[in-house]
Amino acid sequence: MKKKEKQKYGTIAILGEVNVGKSTLLNLLINREISIVTHKANTTREKVRGITSEGNKQIVLIDTPGLSSPTMKNNRSFLTQVWGAIIEADFFLLVIDCRKPVSRTLLNLFDDLKDSVKKLPDAILVINKIDMLSKEKLLLKSKEVNDHFSFKKTFMISALKGYGVSDLKSWMYATIPDNSWGYPKSATHDMTTEKFLNEKTREVILLRIHQEVPYNLEVKTNEIKKLRDGKLMVWQSIKVYNARHRAMLLGKSGKTIKSISINARLNMEKALNQKIHLFLEVKLKKQKATSTELVGESI
Question: What is the CATH number of the domain that holds 27?
């Protein structure tokens, strides 16, 4: 009788400055789009956990909010989540854009890591976007960053094109400790259905609205109802805090919110593999009153 393999289970935090490709990497590693990917800074506002399982091994990947300058609004909240993810992890990946210089933000992070009184997990350097730079310059970049901080290992990848990602994933599976799994084999994330749908709509908003969108924009799923034919009816509220942002979301004659509704619904249907009727409500939050407008779209 074949002996059952001992389970392996590990948690890995993914850190990096804004727009270096952390979320793209997480989605690629778990082969599913769960973390928002846009051109805008700090679209990941909370820790997002992706889960990937293979054979007797399971990995939980934590995508953290992007590191940025200390003057950025909400920076303290973001940093708290980042440090929480580091402490929770068996090791962490620091993703950098190979084209960018070593910033003051990264130097501050390196100093904080060195000065930490807590025992921290091993740090792994992941140099991303290698398709944009020559081999010679990549080697210089690797040396430059490792001179600032001693990483256990360095990987060079292109998350967008998939270069080097399989090597990184194989190393992670081989390195995680022996431990019982934390999730069922079918799990790909730890979000509730409501939060997952919230993120799908928020991603479409950030991609569709090219002007400045506030970090405190909220999407909330108010109700999900399953119909007899298997379709889902989903009601969501989009909350903003001034009239200008509300006007941006609605657009002329409601065209923008209609487009957001269509694309969010399509993304939800693709992710859940079922038909959805989506109704979006735009709320302007005020001290004494709340103005709303409801848009429904479904096929």
Answer: 3.40.50.300
Instruction: State both tokens at 81.
Output: 């989540």
Q: Is 152 helix (H, G, I), strand (E, B) or coil?
A: coil
Say if residue 158 is in the same domain as residue 244: no
Rounded Cα distance, 182 and 100, in Å:
37
Number of domains forming the structure of the chain: 2
User: Quick check: 100 and 80 in contact, CB under 8 A?
Assistant: no
Establish if 37 belongs to a structural domain.
Answer: yes
pTM for this prediction: 0.76
**In sequence order, which ranges of 46-103 are alpha helices (DSSP H)?**
75-88
Q: What is the pLDDT of residues 189-200, one digit of tens each?
A: 888 889 889 988
Buried/exposed code over 259-283 (b: 16+ C-beta within 10 A; e: otherwise): ebbebbbebbbebeeeebbbbbbbb
User: Which region holds residue 287: left if phi is over 0, alpha if psi is between -120 and 50, else beta?
Assistant: alpha
Q: Which tens digits make up the pLDDT trace of 207-237?
A: 887 666 655 678 999 999 999 999 999 999 9
Tens of pLDDT, residue by residue over 36-81, are: 554 444 444 556 789 999 999 999 999 888 887 654 444 555 567 7
